[in-house]
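Job type: complex structure
Entries:
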Amino acid sequence: MPIKTILCIEDDRFIGEMYVRSLKKAGYEVDWVVDGNDGLITARNKQYDAILLDVMLPERRGTEILDALRGGKEDLIPKTHVIVLTNFQQDDESRIAMQKHADAYLIKAEITPKKLISVIEKLEDK
Amino acid sequence: MEVKKVPRLASQFWPEFIRIKIRLIVLTQIAIAFVFGIILIFTASITDSLVLIWFISFLLLPVELIVGILFIISATRPTKDLLAAIIKVTGEQPTLPLPNPNSTKNEQTGFRDALQTIYELSASRDQEKTETSQTDSIVSNALDMTNCGFIALDKNRKIIYSNKTAPTRDSTDGGKEIDLIFNGNDTLNAWLDACAEDSVQDEHVWTRIPDHLPNEEGRRFFDVIASYHKDSASETVLTLIDRTGAYEVDEENLDFISFAAHELRGPITVIKGYLDVLEDELADKLTDDQPELFHRLVVSSNRLSGYIDNILNTSRYDRRHLKMNLSEDTVVAIYDTISDDMKLRAGAQNRLLTVALPDDLPTIAADRASIGEVLGNLIDNAIKYSNEGGVIRVTAKVNGDFVDISIADNGIGMPENVVSQLFQKFYRSHRSRETVAGSGIGLYISKAIVESHGGKISVRSEDGHGSTFTVSLPIYATVADKLKAGDNSNEGLINEGNGWIKNHSMYRS
């Protein structure tokens, strides 16, 4: 399934801008929100093909957002790919809990915009 | 039925002996009286005074009995006294009254000297015993007062002695066991296994060994010195020096470092990200030496990122949080992930990097990102410790159940005393302190990562002529069963650096 629309939930302005700039250049439609509450509301109000989710977010952590969207009985975003992007070394327990509901779990420092786009393309192919 | 003979004590001898002898005298006297009576009857010498004869006989018998018994008691008295004295010397519970050597009788008869000799023997023996137990308790009290732990193990590795400071806990079989958490494969048991096989006498030192996991209360750190003497009563003696004070500072530093490393990753993300983006966008616009300068930016940001990974992994390793996701991989594919970066790094420092990795090597069990980090560290070192124009060769070959990956340089090399300490944390040789920048954790974490794979890292070096580091990793086929049995949580995932992407063909089929 092709990915066209992407929601980026990222509080670091420089990193957010960098991803948004590259993704837009690559032809994706990107919405960007900077806090966890807005992130959850936006994700529930509009259907995206992919969500880039940071972990250490203000207001509401990425773990809580993912849990709210996919932790219940019903998957609220069944058609959306979730890519967790973090620089924070989570403890194994929280990481494994997030991995269960995510399609990718990546370390931001290792993922340049070019690599991010190639990951998104890989998810499209599957 | 088998009758078990219980060894009897010296104190049990006398009552038995005297009982038999008295019984013998009584029976003998009765027998003599009986025989005497019969003879009188048959010789017909019994006359009217029969009654008188019987009366005399019966009156005499008890008298004879009493005299006989008194005689035997008196005759055996010296024997009894000697036995009582000897029983005292043996240390058994005395059942006989102790004879007084200074009694008038003993003095007169000269028996005193015999008793005196035995008592002196006993006194000197008691004194010896008291001295030994006094020395024992002085030593054991003194050891309990020290800050060092002492543990002695017998040949079955059971604790036969431990002082108060020694880190031990109660074991399930009611004994004690050593309460230490060794790093990776370098454990006390592994060393003892090696000793049992090929040593008569050996010594080994471990540093920074904690007794508890991080965040557990009262965590202590020890430097552990083990001495092994095959077949001696205390086959292994451990001396544990409590270095908590010194290492705790390091632990706090690591906490800080770990936190700082997370913070550093933010700016690095942006620097690396935009360099990657701009490399394409500025490709046609850079002139003269600008592309080279741009490369230096890329190389530097990648190196910085690598160092931060080293620091984070060291912090995770020291907290026992470093976990490897091993999967089937090839040396070529792993090297590919760092190839461009290494080429850039070598080029920027005017080193020639030659990589000759055969395509037909068997697959290995590896955590791609971690082994990439190890090879990156080793190549980085080869660059650091070689000279301008130096050659760095990366090769690989099969060696038994392992694939050996070697990184060789013809640089400054190392003397032997440096080689032995090379893989210790924060170790920096005197020479490298002065001339080369570094933190001294690259090789430490590399060793930890390789050992977590069930592999080995080794080094061969000649002072002034270069070094060769070799990483041996298990061939996948030799460990595949073990990995599958271990419920490999990595199954169905594609590794991407330190993260992963779900392999959807497996995940949502």
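Summary: Residues 50-90 of chain B form the longest helix (41 residues). Confidence is low (pLDDT under 50) at residues 487-497, 503-509 of chain B.
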